[in-house]
């Protein structure tokens, strides 16, 4: 059985997630909603709802609707800087969500304990080994390491370097999922052999048939190559903006203007730094919505990872996962 080695290698990941394939569908704001999330879980992967800027009522509905479409496990991704984080955790708790993924920087005090008190397993992003160890001490049950090849908000270090720096030191103590730049199963096999318990992919799932992303958004993905997915540029060094990887378009200039406007407010002391950063996040949520939902791929933000070049057509989620699994299993078989 060619798939046996694969099943063995990611067994800690599949046991932890409670699914057949240790492939997390990385939460993507506006894209990872009931349809795509349930499709990924139904195909044996692990779908994750992107809560993004949703309020507690909207998240409540989204979880309910996802449950109506799948009886398999799925998770919820919450952003640490969301002003209603505590209420959102309560919504997850009421629904008995089994896994909460916490993204967007170090969580506020109390959030980790609150998540654990709901009974959910906590998955946290670690951008460096020291932070991974800190999160483990604070009670994280699994870690995601995400390199700068990824779509959306990114750190400065590549996936291949993060994997080498982090996996050997913690992969036996905690399940680690590797994300960023994964487009084919051969790469999945390689990270599993390095000690990963599984992987997380976002970009590859955008053009799934079940994804509600606008046809223009999907077309932009299908046309693009790796070099079109570029990180945003920081205009003012006083305003620390986390770079976002997206396809090049007019929106790049708009973001520069937005940064200048916010920096001026900071100069005039009309804005606190925390509020400035929240405004930037709201800006991204709006720009992404324009592209994903309205199909405005010129002035909206077409967030995409470098693996976008490996997205060549619209295809059913089950087919995407099937291809990834087959490629990973075949790569492992060739090593025997
Ligand atoms: C359009 C888009 C939106 C995203 N939104 C979020 C988000 O809301 N929260 C989050 O934690 N990650 C977000 N991500 C990152 C994904 O969850 C995932 O980690 C990433 O896409 C993995 O890298 P890949 O794109 O190379 O597969 C987003 C990615 C994309 C492409």
What's the domain count? Answer: 2
Q: The biggest beta sheet, please?
A: 8 strands, parallel, barrel
Helix content class:
40-55%
- Written as H for each helix and E for each strand, in order along the chain, the element string is HHEHEHEHEHEHEEHEHEHEEHHH
CATH architectural type of the largest domain = Alpha-Beta Barrel
Main CATH class of the largest domain: Alpha Beta
Terminal Cα separation, in Å? 12 Å
As laid out across the biggest beta sheet, the strand order is 1-2-3-4-5-6-8-9
The distinct bound ligands, ions and cofactors come out as:
flavin mononucleotide
Describe this protein's structure:
The chain has 336 residues and is an alpha/beta fold. It has two domains: 3-212 and 311-329, TIM Barrel; 215-306, no CATH class. The chain has 13 helices and eleven strands. Strands 1-2-3-4-5-6-8-9 form an eight-stranded parallel barrel, surrounded by seven helices. The radius of gyration is 19 Å and the shape is globular. The protein starts with a helix and ends with a helix. Flavin mononucleotide is lined by residues 26-29, 31, 50, 52, 77, 103, 146, 149-152, 179-182, 200-204, 303-305, 307.
